[in-house]
Structure formats: structure tokens, C-alpha cells
Amino acid sequence: MIRKIVYAACVISVGLLSDSCSQALEKDLIKCDIRQTGYPEETVALEVHAAGHEGPDLMSAIIRDSLVISQERSSSYLFSISGLRSGELKMMCCRKGRAGNEPLSAIPVREVFEEDGDMKAYVYSYQDSEIFEWNISKSLSSGSDVYDSVVRISAPGQDGGMLALMSCYALDGNSVIVRNSRQDPQKEEFLDVPVYETYSLTDGMRTDVYDSMFSYSEVPVENESFRPKYYLSGSDCISPDRNRIAYVMGYMPYLVTLDLGSGESVAFRLTGEPAFNPSEERWCFTSVQADDTRIYALYYGGNIDDKDFDACPDKLYVFDWNGRLLKEIRLDRHFTDLSLDVANSMLYLTHRMRSGIYGIDTKDI
User: Fold this and answer.
1) How confident is the model at residue 253, as a pLDDT?
2) Residue 286 parent element (H or E)
3) End-to-end CA distance of the chain
4) Are 229 and 191 in contact (CB under 8 A)?
5) I want to staple 40 with a disulfide (CB 3.0 to 4.6 A). Which of 74, 172, 219, 328 is the partner?
6) In what order do the strands lie in the sheet with 315-320?
7) For residue 82, which phi and psi values (nearest 5 degrees)?
8) For 116-174, where are the E strands, in sequence order?
9) Does the model's pTM come out above 0.85?
10) Which helix (H) or strand (E) holds 208?
């Protein structure tokens, strides 16, 4: 059911919402239980150090062992693989659809996984709604793209249109879980609502839907440059045990967890942070990674119009899976992306518009 939210009584001069009404808006948009994180149990300052090469800018990079897998800005290839220390380009990968067995496009790869001794990743081509099982190990050894399988996915009511997936993670039993979007592209006043869905990689059919996080609502447009479809946008990751999803919100100070066993979600609000205000674009969380006990989330907390990002360096928040804020780490610069190498206990930090790879040993935090 679509709910229409009316806030006429809350409007003050120049059309801005009061803080109390903004908090009411947060509660109307978030369907699940909302809890406070509490203040951090420990706060530390940290000077991060280079952990890799100072090569070209990295876009949505994943770092595992000695490899850096980065989305490409190239017109011919979707990804590249380079050495972590040397920066040496090892391979341009996933050539764009010149043949029927090649992806036309790709969303950022959020994870790599190991199967039968090979490193793999799922590449979702949104232009043709196909998931490619990319065998990274065999691609590197052969010098050409190797896909172990390709499946076209579809959902009831899709009517042949493409699925606007934002992430894709491997599950047990030859299936994946994806973040999809519920939004009418013709109606800017409706939210773009993240939902999670599972798909079989045997026949490409949808098998389950998790929609316990957010409400599908119509809201007033307070800022023409910041439409409601962006309000709930964010970043996510899956726990290594494949049982939980962590979702952090880009414009609201929330970490939301989804238990894939029960289907239940809980939203954890950063204690003391300003209420969401649709009249201004304020960046909150920018990236998240997790292991089976802790969640690591980058938080900016500055206005999106700030020109000097380093004037407002990031904070790295460390939570447990119950939403308890264990630590606030004040970084000495601004980053946009995290990549967690669980096996080597390394959390990598990168900036998609700058060169350089930085690292933190998770055993030290």
C-alpha cells in the first residue's frame, strides 16, 4: 500500500521543515524498528598510511590479497585488475558486449568469493538483466574473460524491462541476493525504496523478497535539486556467513541491518546527529563493510556542496551487529570507499576521484 504523507502543519518560513517534523519524516519513511546507537564507547584519532600503489584513480575498488579489482572508465572494458603494491596492470577485464556472451554493462562489483579454489565475482549487466559468473582466477591464468555461467533474471510484473539492481551477493544453493528498487520513474515525488530479493541462478526466477526496511511513500518535494527518489539511497554489504545485510544511508544517519533468516530489519540511528532535512543535501554514510562480528562504516557528516572535502575528514564508525557503536575513529582525510579483506584482517580505504590505497589492520581497531 502506498501512503501519502502530509506535513503542511509542519512547514515554517521559506518552506523548511522544523527539526521535530524532520524526525517525524524519518519515522514515516523507515518501516522497521528504530533504535539509538548511543554515543561511541571509545573515540580515537588515526593517521592512515599508504598500503598500496599511488596509481590512477580507483573507482569502486575491491582489494583481495595482492590484487586490486576496479571498475573501469574505459569505453571497451568494465573492470581492470592490477597489483596492490606495484600498481602493475595485470589485465583489462570483462569486455563490453561485442559478442552474445559478453556483458553490455555492469554495476560495481561489491564482493569476490572463492569456489572450488577459484576467485569469482558476480557481474550484473543491467542493460540485459543478466548475471555473469566471472571466474577471476581462470581469466588471469588464460589472459581472457572466463564466465562459468550466464543467467537472465526476471521478476513477476517485469514485462521485459531491465531490473535496476544496485548490488549482488552470492548465497548458498546457487542463488544470489540483490538490492532492487521500487520507484516509478515518472513520479519524482515517490521514494526510491530499496528492497532485497533472492534469485535462482538455475532458472533466473525470483524466489524471495525482503521489504521490511522502508515504506513506499509519497512525500512533498522541498528541494528541486534533491528529489525524494534519493532520500533512502545508500550502500550495503553482506556478512561473510551470508546471514545478514548491513545497509547505511547516504542522507540520513542510519545503519539498517537485515537478518536473512527471520526477514526482520532494525534501523540504528546515530545518537546526536541532526535530523534529516529535505531542504538540504547532507552527506551521511558513504560506504560500509563487515565481518561476522563487526560493521565498519565511513561517515562524512558534511554538506554536499562543500568544495573542500578534506576540511571535513571522515569518521570511521565501528558497530557490532546489534547496532552498538563500539568506536569512533577520526580519520585525517576524506575517503569514498571501503574494501575489507577478511582473510588478511585488512580494511582498505580509497577515494574514487584520487589515487592512493590506504589500509588499517582490523586487529588494531
Assistant:
1) 96
2) strand 285-290
3) 44
4) yes
5) 328
6) 43-46, 325-331, 315-320, 294-299, 285-290
7) -135, 170
8) 118-125, 130-135, 147-152, 167-171
9) yes
10) strand 206-210
For 5-50, write each residue's pLDDT tens digit: 333 333 333 334 345 556 778 988 999 999 999 999 999 999 898 9
Residue 115 pLDDT greater than 50, yes or no: yes
Q: What distance in Å separates the CA atoms of residue 193 and residue 164, rounded to the nearest whole number?
A: 11
C-alpha cell at 177: 541476493
Q: Return the domain boundaries, the chain.
A: 3-364
- Within the chain, what is the greatest distance between any pair of CA atoms? 65
Beta strands in 76-192 (DSSP E): 77-83, 89-95, 113-115, 118-125, 130-135, 147-152, 167-171, 175-182
pLDDT in tens, 168-225: 999 988 999 999 987 655 565 667 889 999 999 999 999 999 999 998 777 767 777 7
d(CA 89, CA 106): 20
Question: Please, which residues bridge with residue 65 across strands?
Answer: none
Task: Please provide the CATH number assigned to the domain covering 3-364.
Answer: 2.120.10.30
Tell me how many degrees the CA angle 249-185-154 measures, rounded to the nearest 5: 85
Q: How many Cβ atoms from other residues are within 10 Å of residue 362's Cβ?
A: 18
Which residues are CB-neighbours of 241 under 8 A, at least 6 positions away? 292
